[in-house]
Specification:
This protein is α/β, with parallel strands linked by helices and about 625 residues long. It has 22 helices and 7 strands. InterPro entries: MFS, MFS_dom, MFS_trans_sf, Plipid/glycerol_acylTrfase.
């Protein structure tokens, strides 16, 4: 299965050269940025150093506001592999200029280099995520994003550590500047050479007329994104994560010095815990997603970020610092494990939160404007990071809150933002319920699902055993499914919310509700004309004895109006489970088993002209076999 082989992407030319190119770029940016910040901090008086350090942070973010909109348009207009090579060539030029600036000792020239590196990153950002859907299959998209997130955060951490260490050897007579120059130049040249192996990625909009006004272009693409609420709120969710991450990471040096009583080495340890956590969470997300964009992990990530954020606030608030400001003294403190574990868990849950959102944004964005959507996402990320800095100033400097209190506030804010996003896009809650069912009460295996067409109109015809049949099918099949279901089941509390979210079509007999019957058939016809994948349970009701009930001729009427392929399917192993009618009505008696091993089986597609209710029933019965 795809999710078990995500590391195999590292052996593919479709992915490895790009992965190495972006990782080397992230490493190089952070070597130069952190080396510069450390040198400024130790060369200058405190007041001037603080000013230049904050100016450096602003100059690196500023290009994302100024150039992301243009960068997104360029990435949609030009072959992305060619664009990446041009960006990496520009990086070599910027690095050569940066080496001269470092040796000149002019801090403002160095800040100009940092600004140029920000410009380069702003142009690389849209390409970074827009190229993945062109080179990876859908089943590989989550795994690819997980590896990219892991590689990015590890490169950021490694670059930060290397830059800081080398900056410590830049005093008079020290070889630090030579080493910094060698590292950033060799890395830039290596990045360019590796980028030459990236396969071609044909531009989706080669005739695009570029709008160089960042304000009007960003506003226009935001409006385009808002037409697909899932994409728009994915951007909001991703940007919120960057705010949350910036709020934590920005405070780590002050937390270390003022709350934990530690030094620079402890700062590095805490950064390592967070970054390693994000890498682990990203890879776990790829494993748990089962080769699909699993939105059910996003609420788990959001809940984890809130709970662990509160625990971190408590752990740091109750910490009693040791006398010695060493890592060893911190390690020996009884409060240290809770802080390290919670920081790591924040990173892990952050990976659960961010990877599916990036994958959904890529998958559901219109291919012709995908890079521009990602560019706008980068603008919003930068904006939210600025907001994180403002929140830190307001709470810590204006309101006089402590850092643990600030951590508590942003953890609670995370809960509020998550609830807002999940109510706006109920699909997250639906996918969570499906994921929980398929990973707790049910162990689901699949057979023949590759026979389901990846796109285009079709109808799935399946036996009906339990109240969660639709959820199990939706969890097994990668394409979104619209279910045609008996109206009383559609209206069951809680499940109604799920079915409505997935645009299920309620139906009952013509005698019970003639208008509703006609309305359902009209909606079915329109859905098939729109290319949707529909699922019908031809028995019309749940089985009461575990055997197939006679298939009704409704499916023949549907196919007469809109001929499309029919995929016969069967659910095995559900009879006797908690949500079936074995031994009476479902829920009225204790089930014979709480855990069920279920198999979802798909047969070969049937042409519409071949489908008759009685023959279709026999086909489904053969697929089901003896296992009810």
């Amino acid at each position: 299965m795809a999710h078990k082989n995500q590391f195999q992407l590292l052996g593919s030319r479709r992915f490895l050269p790009f992965f190495c190119t972006q990782s080397l770029g992230a490493f190089n940016d952070n070597v130069f940025k952190n080396a510069l910040i450390v040198m400024i901090a130790f060369r200058l008086a405190t007041a001037e150093a603080n000013f230049l350090i904050n100016l450096a942070a602003g100059l690196f973010i500023l290009p994302f506001f100024l150039f992301s909109a243009t960068a997104g348009q360029v990435a949609d207009k030009i072959d992305k592999s060619t664009l990446i090579r041009r960006i990496k060539l520009a990086e070599i030029g910027i690095v050569l200029f940066g080496i001269g600036a470092l040796y000149s000792g002019n801090n403002y020239l160095c800040l100009l280099v940092l600004f140029l590196l920000g410009v380069q990153s702003a142009f690389f950002g849209p390409v970074k995520y827009a190229i993945l859907p062109q080179h990876l299959r859908k089943a590989e998209l989550v795994g690819g994003n997980a590896l990219v997130e892991m590689g990015t955060f590890v490169s950021i951490l490694t670059g930060t550590i290397v830059g800081g260490l080398l900056a410590g050897f830049t005093g008079e007579g020290e070889p630090g500047l030579l080493w910094i120059s060698a590292v950033i130049l060799v890395t830039a040249i290596t990045g360019y050479l590796v980028s030459r192996a990236i396969p071609q990625a044909v531009p989706p909009a080669p005739d695009l007329q570029i709008n160089y006004n960042p304000v009007t272009q960003t506003n226009r693409i935001l409006k385009e994104a808002a037409k697909t609420p899932a994409v728009f709120y994915a951007i909001i969710g991703i940007s919120w994560f960057w705010l949350l991450g910036a709020a934590y990471l920005t405070q780590i040096p002050s937390l270390t010095r003022n709350v934990l009583g530690g030094g620079e080495s402890l700062v590095t340890l805490l950064l390592c815990c967070f970054t390693i956590g994000v890498a682990i969470g990203s890879l776990l997300c790829g494993r748990l997603s089962g080769g699909r964009v699993e939105l059910g992990l996003v609420p788990i990530g959001a809940a984890g970020l809130t709970v662990v954020g509160v625990l971190l606030a408590s752990a740091t608030g109750n910490y009693q610092p040791p006398v010695e400001p060493t890592v060893a003294a911190f390690w020996a403190n009884e409060g240290a494990p809770a802080i390290l574990i919670n920081l790591t868990l924040i990173g892990i849950f952050g990976g659960f939160f961010i990877v599916p959102l990036y994958s959904m944004m890529q998958e559901r964005s219109d291919a012709t404007i995908r890079a521009r959507i990602i560019a706008v996402n980068n603008v919003m990320n930068a904006l939210f990071m600025v907001v994180a800095a403002i929140l830190g100033i307001v709470f810590l400097n204006v309101l006089g809150a402590t850092i643990p209190q600030f951590f508590l506030v942003i953890a609670l804010m995370n809960a509020a933002v998550a609830i807002f996003v999940f109510t706006r896009v109920p699909e997250f809650a639906m996918r969570l319920l499906i994921w929980l069912l398929s990973h707790t009460m049910y162990r689901v295996n699949h057979e023949g699902l590759e026979r389901i067409p990846a796109e285009g109109a079709a109808i799935i015809a399946c036996n009906h055993v339990s109240y969660v049949d639709a959820l199990l099918l939706a969890g097994a099949i990668r394409r979104p499914i619209r279910f045609i279901m008996y109206k009383p089941i559609y209206e069951i509390p809680v499940l109604h919310f799920i079915f409505k979210t997935s645009r299920a079509i309620p139906i009952c007999s013509k005698q019970q509700d003639p208008e509703g019957y006609a309305r359902a058939f009209a909606e079915i016809e329109q859905g098939l004309k729109d290319g949707d994948l529909l699922c019908i349970f031809p028995e019309g009701q749940l089985t009461k004895d575990g055997e197939l009930q006679p298939f009704k001729v409704g499916i023949e009427k549907i196919l007469q109006r809109t001929p499309v392929p029919v995929i016969p399917m069967a659910l095995r192993g559900l009879w006797g489970s908690f949500f079936s009618h074995k031994d009476g009505s479902a829920f009225s008696t204790l089930p014979r088993r709480f855990w069920s091993r279920v198999c979802v089986v798909a047969g070969s597609p049937l042409a519409a002209a071949e489908v008759k209710a009685e023959a279709l029933q026999e086909t489904v019965a053969d697929l089901r076999g003896e296992a009810r």
